[in-house]
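writing this on my phone so excuse typos. first protein, seq and then structure
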Amino acid sequence: MTAATHVAPPEVVAPLAVPLHPARAFFRQRLGLVGAAMLGFAFFVAIAAPLLAPYDPYASVRPTILDIYQPPSAEHLLGTDDGGKDVLSSLMYGARVSLLVGFTAAFIALLIGASVGLVAGYVAGRVGGALMRVTDFFLVIPDLALMIVIVAIVGPSLTNIILVIGVLGWTSTARLVRSQTLSVKERKFVFRARAVGASGLHIMRRHILPLVLPLMLANTVLVISVAVLEESTLAFIGLGDPTVISWGQMLNFAFTRGAVSAGAWWALLPPGLAIVWVVLGTTLVGTALEEALNPRLRRHHLEAEPRLHLLEELRGGEPLPEPPSLAPQPAEGSPPVLRVSGLTISYDSAGGPLRAVDNVSFDLHRGETLGLVGESGCGKTTTALALLRLLPPGGTIERGQVVLDGVDILALPQNELRAVRWTRMSIVFQGAMNALNPVKTVASQVAEAIRLHEPEVGRRGADDRARQLLERVGISARRANHHPHTYSGGMRQRAMIALALACRPDVIIADEPTTALDVMIQAQILELLADLGREFGMGTIIVTHDLGVIAQVCDRVAVMYGGSLVEEAGVQQLFADPQHPYTRLLLSSVPDVGHPDRRLRAIPGTPPRLEQMPAGCQFAPRCPLVFERCWTERPPAYNLDRRRAACFLVEPQARATDG
């Protein structure tokens, strides 16, 4: 008989509304539709001006005194101007120039500002600093004054006006985009994209830009309105293109040619209202677009109508199948898939480097699950991130080796490192909601990793594999194209596991994979990790502070304290006979169902701060068995019978084992 492999059950959910496409979401915004209608009307008038206008404002006329500033009448619905020309016709033709200047200049400003802001925010360092110094230089110069000087020098043509307004109007956009980019690039899904092996350009284009785009669209409102107003200002002071009619030119003629003294309000009010009309329309459209393009701004699925209310059903009452008691053991003498030797990590501080991880070493074999356990602040996550060289800014690997199938990851250049990430070693980040891009569907994020490393698969092949992986971890295909915020916590964690499996790695690192999940979901996630490790023959490292997690799925345990590995043993060895005092106290602080009368013990004190690390054993200030040698000398890792412990108390036992 062959042992049956347990397959994770798919999520069972109630009927659910399909997430709205951004276009459909926009059409549900009433105010956005009003704004679009206002802009659409303005564009229609501008395009159809030759057909709609009762007169040609560019035609030569010989007005009489009776034709000047005629009030509105049946012949001239909005009256006439100082030249006896029809104001309504001039307003229609003026829409062409004002809209052309406003939108074209805004596009130029957004293109320059967004490029500068994205690069300055993501690259930072000298390049980012230089770009922002250029931005600051342009910011301190009054835009209007500089525009007046430049237009007066180069000439008041329509092309020159558009270029001057666009080139000088990008600074505010650059600063806004940069500030948003600085925030977005620190989010965990960008960190995850780097871990997948994406280049900086790919991350900016596929992950940061979609999140910054709503801000850019909202800023378009201000840029368009400012561009229209600046064109009006230039025309008002006589620097508008004299060969064309714009709303600004109409205001200029009205003010300078006696419309106010003549009481000809019809020469002033229509172009002013037209400018307000366009600005208001762009404001409404920009707000609606921001909400439509950013899924997290839409109404949450729990706020939907009752008939669409999401009730995610667990497998009610059905017991989980018992996992196999033992994972496949590595063949005797087989080389480990991952060997970590002497890994030492420090962080920069004002007082000098602070050592966070000190001389950590361990092996991991294929099909084996290693638990990395310890209190918060003991260096577990730092160690895990260092394996893929994903330390946060300020973190430095001082020395050590991380050898993956004979290749030292710490010695690889960046281009080769990107090829190793996710194809050979991947990571399930802590906090799945933050590690998934909120504006991209879950399936597209899984497929992205496949296309990055296996472009020959193609878009369709990557999408098909992404759906297969999601189904393998228990997410039905109909939920694949949903956004992360529509998933429950357990489903998001399953999605992260599918993402980690995308390129069939040899090693998976799971950083606190069951954080904030209830007990039933924790059991399912842990069982899934164990099954996948056996199924794909991967080595798995689980970072946790939960000894229950360790007992359930791990084959070996590495206990960390104060940045050092203080004990390493098989699960049964460790739980039955812990050697290090810290490990004993950890186990005594966990309830034992087999001994309900046993009194739980809390570990006195707190883990040491990096700047206050003891000179000797890190655990000495909290150890109940401490003696004088512990304060001055740091214990080495003594090799015992198929285990290790860094404590002077086991030194005699280690000598007996060696003998």
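second protein below, same order as before
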Amino acid sequence: MDDSGSLQLLEALACRHMSGRPIVIGSIMPLSLLGRAVHAVVADAEPQGGQRSAQTGAVFVCTASVRVRLVAWDAQDDAHTSASWQLLTTSAEDATREEVQQHAARDALSRARARAATQHGECRGFADLAGVPDAVAALNRLIVLPLARPQLFQSSGLRPPRGVLLHGPPGCGKTRLAMAAAAQARVLLFVISGPELNSEYSGEAEARLRGVFQAAQEAAAGEPQVPGLRPGAVVLIDEIDALAPARGDTAGGMSSSASVRCVTQLLTLLDGGQAGVPLEGVLVIASTNRVEALDPALRRPGRFDAEVNVRAPGAAGRAAILEAKLKGVKHGVTAGQVAGIASSLHGYTGADIESLVAEAAMRALRRSICSTETAVSPVTAEDLEVAQRVIRPSIMRDVRVEVPPSACWDDVAGLESVKMRLAECLGAHAQALDRLGVQPPRGVLLFGPPGCAKTTLARAVAARGGWNFISVSGSDLFSQWVGESEKAVAALFARAREAAPCVLFLDELDALAPVRGAGGDSTAGSSPVDRVLAQLLIELDGGAGSPGAGAGNGIMLLAATNRPDLVDPALLRPGRLDRLIYVPPPASAPDREAVLRVHLRRTPISGDVDLAAIAQATPGFTGADLAGVCREACLAALTEDLDAPCVCARHLDTAIRTVRPSEPLSPEMEALYTKMARG
């Protein structure tokens, strides 16, 4: 510490560490130098253009214009230590609190003005957006109209909205929507990021919040700071759940008392401004992807009057976003290819599609580097399809997405009546149902013997309707910790609502929701299975203020089981799993022949193959068994000759002898399936 170079380095570190913070002359300051803890004493401070002060106990707010001089601290100097800390623990901190808050407010005010002035012109309004027509229409009505034509509200005696809450999954364009709304209304935008306001010093976060609102009020009341703008302002509170979590919840990143003060300050500003002055010409937009974590006091009329749910885009929205993102790169993708690729991007948000285009562009760039051509290769449809295997949808990264582009009705041979009933459940005849005042089923249970294409049917019906598809099994939901399984069920349905329209597929329902009390436990609701079932029933019915399942709400629940007698009866009543559909095995030879044609449609076969004869020779084979026969025939051909051009009849005969058919149904199970299919 005697080296002047080390002291200068420490002084620079101290100024950087304490920027915007109070410093007290005579206080001990711990610093880290090259991984080693070093303690120094603040000897004096000299503001730029001001008078140096070395008086012990004097207080300065450390800014870029203040030079701090440090001296070495001797731990054995008890007198100096005692005097220094007595000053720190008496009135010094109380005297600086108001000065620190005033400095924080002034700093937030100047930062807000500078950021608002520089952000203007970065966005051209709603013309830059694609795939969110409903949100654009809502913001036009709630934000742009009150700011662009305030005289309409004044003449009619209507109070314009005070605030709008944008909520939805990450990457759907909430922040960009708010910026576009301000640009469309031609007013300044003041951005507040919740984590940026957090401070370890009491009162500083509230002071910064007041400073931003003060800057917005001045912009709305005075002349526009930027030519071409109207009087008015939009305050965007990004990630408001970090700034104003539910009081009593410390998960927001601040201490409980600090979060309560921030929530209270924000409520005060929304109700009457800094000193009871109404926020004339100032509209507040908040965004969050955890709307349930907000303090309930914010979500009432007079504060956030309206809530706009920005969902993941559908097929048409994804096509519009993909087309807009491709305008920025050199590509050779046709409009038809864009529509086809967009229809397969189930669960992708706008940010995911942007990453997809960037990955495809990088693949085209790597191809150009490896070739001898000097020009950059254009992005092709193949690049986008390869990038799709790399970029997964962010909404569904913690669940299984099982909708390959090839899933379609043709993957399931026969079962025409089953397909028709499934299509009706997904709203194939929505207009006719509306005319008769009938709601489509909330859920469908597919039951039948194993290997009869129940899972494939679920995939195909989602792909046919262009819906997102989430597949869940019992292992994804059950946990050893009490309460975690129920939270997983609630989170699953919340994720499905975010990805709506969505098909939620529960495989092996008998293991997920068995009959309560079947395990011999006399205590009702004590087992994790019973608690999961209770939460599942609540989500199906639409509890906790959220819409239940059903095609009308954008969520279709599909379940599959081969033991419907083991499923709890509460799930099988009307209003939950309304429709029970029996998926039979291919009982007749023509049905088995159709299944064989589906599985061999991409396999070259010789002229001596008679599929009708093979179908006659495979009684009792299910669809999965016949798929195994086709696979074994291909392997037999390759075993015989790796260069085999096709599959011959002898290979299929070998496969029939190798693959064992499934166990036949017992008379009791046949009677049960028949009874439930009729009932």
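The chain is about 45% helix and 15% strand. thats all i got for now
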